[in-house]
Structure formats: structure tokens, C-alpha cells
Amino acid sequence: MRLTITLQRFNPEQDAAPHDEEMRLDVRRGTTVLDLLIRIKQEVDGRLALRYSCRSAICGSCAMEINGGQKLACRTSVRKEYARHGRLRIAPLPHVPVIKDLVVDMGPFWSKIRNITPWLSASSLMPHRPAEAAGGLPEPAESRFHNVDACIMCGACVAACTVHAVSPQFAGPAALAKAGRFLADPREPERVTRARLEVLQEAHGIWDCTRCNFCVEVCPKDVKPMEAIIRLRRASLDRRLAPTAGARHITAFAELIEGQGRLNEAVMPLKVVGTDFSRLWRILPLGIRMFFKGKVPTPFSHRLAGLSQVQAIFRRGRRPFAP
User: Fold this and answer.
1) Is the CB of residue 70 less than 8 Å from the CB of residue 62?
2) Which residue of 6, 159, 169, 310 pairs with 89 in a disulfide if CB–CB is 3.0 to 4.6 A?
3) 141 and 179 share one domain
4) Which pLDDT value is given to residue 125?
5) Is 215 a residue whose pLDDT tops 70?
């Protein structure tokens, strides 16, 4: 089967900008995108730059953009991609610096990982917990850490992240998922856990995630980084470490639903902005427009039917479930 492959090429020493090149090759059944790229480098153009190692979806080094999605080339079937998309376009991971062709600079990615301190604190190995200090955990790591340890650091989730695309300073799903792994580690004392969470409250931390779910979709190891970020948020709220507008939005939403049985869109912005008068002034025109659109409920309106059932749900959610 003879197919046309489109490659994004870029040599910073010669090219002003990335450009596409097309080439045609005979492809056998069972060929992966990585197999195809190695053939191109060996038989067509030895100047092609790509990164790979294990060829078994373990090292994560062959992550790239294939037909618009972030995937591992070693586990992506050429025929399946053609059957699904009718074409095969290969490019480097987006939103990260390109060194040459399909090779990207992973330095910014690794700096994000280092910034969350991905190791146990030395003070975690406390003498009154000898079994855990010796390295043992009271339950299997898979269930305690929610499969976060399966991450192979391929960077696909960061490349797919919509927040990282517009704000490169964002910690990113991979680093935050790793932070969630240490949050769940029982060998660290509460003061260390709290210190970790305090750092994550800052700008470009856990509250910047928009929950687009793209990191979950592209992860080749089913790590579910977005769910780890949600667990970090819940842990922050449990410890009342929620000074940001994103945290206030969540707590205000829940308070309004519990108290009134519905979302009060007039009060919601006020709860999120808080006592920041400069922001209050900026949202005043929004409040006026909401009033004329009927979005501001009157305080004299009747009590919503079923409010007691809604409040019962909230009370039930605060109690631990029976075993």
C-alpha cells in the first residue's frame, strides 16, 4: 500500500519557519508511525531529526503530533490513522520549543517537574512509623496513588493542555499529577503536605486548570492528570487553602446551590471578586446588563420547591459513606 506522508520540517540553521514536506512510501500491514519515520530517515532523507528509544511505549521519547493529536509514534498504527483521518501528517509536539524537525526541547517540561519537588522530604521518614520509614506502604501503590506512577514523562499532556498553550508558565498536568502523588504519600507529615499545597495555590498552579480533559484524552498510560488536579483542589479546600478566585468560584457555587437551590448569578460574581474594589468596579456594568436581562432574582421571590432535598444531598455528601 503506497501512501503519502506529510512531515513538518524545521532546521533553525536554514529555515525561517517550519514548513511541510510530502513523500510517498510503500507501507506494510502492522507498520507504526515510528517504523515509518525510521524508514524515511534510513532510505529517503538522512537529515530527518527524531527522538526515540525503547520502541515499546515505555520511555515516552517518541511523543509527537500525529494528525492533530498528541501520541506516541511507536504505538500508533499508520493504517488506522489513514482509515480514521484519510491522511498522515506528522509534526513535533506543539507549544514547546523545536530543536529540529520532530525533536523538541524538553527543558521547560523538566523544570516544571522539578518545581513541585518530586521526592519525599527528608523529615518524612519519622521514627514513630518504622514500617513506612523502611519503604513500605499500608496499601498497594496503584490504588493509593491513582496510577500517577505510571506516567512516563512523554509530555503529551502538556502539549495538549489548552492553558499551557496561552500561559507557558502554567505548572502543567504532568507536574501537578506528580504533586498529587506525593500528596497521597502517607510517609510525609501533614505540615509538609500543607506546605506543598500552599505553593500550588500561587499563580500558574492548580486553580489555573480549565478542566478541558485533553490531558486525559492523550495520556498513553491512563494517568488521568486532570483528576489528580481535582484531588489537589479538594485537599486545598479541606485545609482552607483557597485564596484564589478559582477556589472562591467553587465554594461560592456550592454555597449558593445549597442555600437557595439554584445559582444566583447576581451574587456569584460578588462572592468571587470579594473585597477587591477595583474588580468590583469593573464588573458593575455586567451587573447592570444582568438586571435588565432578568438574571438578577428578586429577594422577595418564593422559596424553590425541593430545596430541602437539595440541602439533604449536601448534608449526605459531608458524611462518610457506610462501608
Assistant:
1) no
2) 6
3) yes
4) 56
5) yes
